[in-house]
Amino acid sequence: MSSKADVESFLTDLKQKIKVFDLIIVERDKNRQTLAELEMKQSDCKKIIDLLSAENYYRGPKKDSEFTGEYWEFGIDVKGKDVYIKVNYGKPNKQVICISFHFAEYEIKYKYKE
Length: 114
Known about the structure:
32% of the residues lie in helices and 31% in strands. By secondary structure, it is an alpha+beta fold.
């Protein structure tokens, strides 16, 4: 588990990188279905990720077997539903990768939520 300061530092860097290099959402059925049910566009995901704080932290970082580097996991309430977000910082000078943006399939246990 990461410290609260580590999570805050990661989110600050992540949000800055998204502003410069943008965000790509991995094409997965559950990601598409969640966006459709929430009546959201992929561009709306950036706004949601920008709202993340250490209180939304769930787990990570963990070694990513699919993409380069590590991924971090968060959860957030969107329109009254828990949404699970898994992000990878991505390669240098490339887009941030949003691996998962879908309804939570399991209970999210927040480490720093008060």
